[in-house]
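Q: Structure tokens for this one, please.
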Amino acid sequence: MRDLARRVEAATPLGRDRALDALRALAILGVVLGHWLVTALVADSGTVRGASPLNHLPEFTPVSWVFQTLAVFFLVGGAVSARGLAAARARREPYRAWLAARLGRLFRPVAALLAVWTAVALAVLASGVPWQTVYTLGKLVLSPLWFLLVFAALTALTPLVARVHPLWPLAVVLHVDLIRFGLDGPAWTGWINVAAGWLVPYCLGAAWARHGLDDRTAGRLLLGGGAAATVLLVLFAGYPAAMVGVPGAPVSNLNPPTLAAVTFGIAQCGAALLLLDPLRRALRGTAAWAAVALVNLSAMTVFLWHQTAMIAVTVTGLLAGELLGHGPLPGLHAAPDGYGWVLARIAWLPLFALALLVCVGAFRTYEQGGRRPFPKGRPDENEEIRRA
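A: Here is the predicted structure, written as tokens:
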């Protein structure tokens, strides 16, 4: 492990902002843990259906505030894309080549996921598994892909949106919600916010990269303003307090994004900016930076396969329970209707993580393109390469 950490350090460019990679890793891991904590698969009358503890335990809502971290990912994505495009232009690299490199790492692992799950869905349907169960599992696996499609579109539009002030897409979100909720407009207008809502943190990241915002001042303003706006919207405008979708709820803050979700994301972006200096200090250590770098190398693989890992453990537990004559296992495929389920689900998390590591080991090469990111060799050789 020490040798790996040294190789990671030697392969890291001198000017790399390690805090950005740490924020990206935290955002991905936040989404993973959030899904594992608020998503349940309940065995019911021969089928499996989705459920959420937020339906039964509204006091569990603050979990969604901690682990709904997509805005931070878009913030980092906007900053990295704007910097990368500027560097590509300085090297006279064609825009098409820059975009192909960016999107290739996004969509290669998607192709692997779709191929595997197409085969799985056909096999389980042929074996007599009810369509409702296959639909539930497929929806869990494929629903995160909307995020990648939006992120890919914004990445492709970086030359245009990098110069857009974040207040413009925020104004669009505000007007869409006024039409949708205030004037009882058509529900389809909410889908405009899928692009406009995530454009806000993306443009914030691009502005940060272009203008070099003061991390602490901007962080305090964004955190304070975004948090205050979110509280007011929840208390006085009728927006849900949960920042994730809750099955059966009349309004979801996330699907499509609402003004409350966007202001909450702004607050998260402010907190991320305030974390930059502490993260930079923490990542001066070789071991800490190696952990962050390894997560980032497989970030899309982790994101795409984390629901599959949860499903694999749940289905295995269900089959084992049927063979042994046990009922639904708490925290796995029992109804999430009490604190006992929450405690049991936390106990299952290490097994989910182990299953996810197996998936990452099997499929990470699609994201990394088959290359070795940290070649073995003498540390002094890698240091010379890094400095060059």
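A few notes: Strands lie at 40-44, 47-51. The two ends are 25 Å apart (CA to CA).
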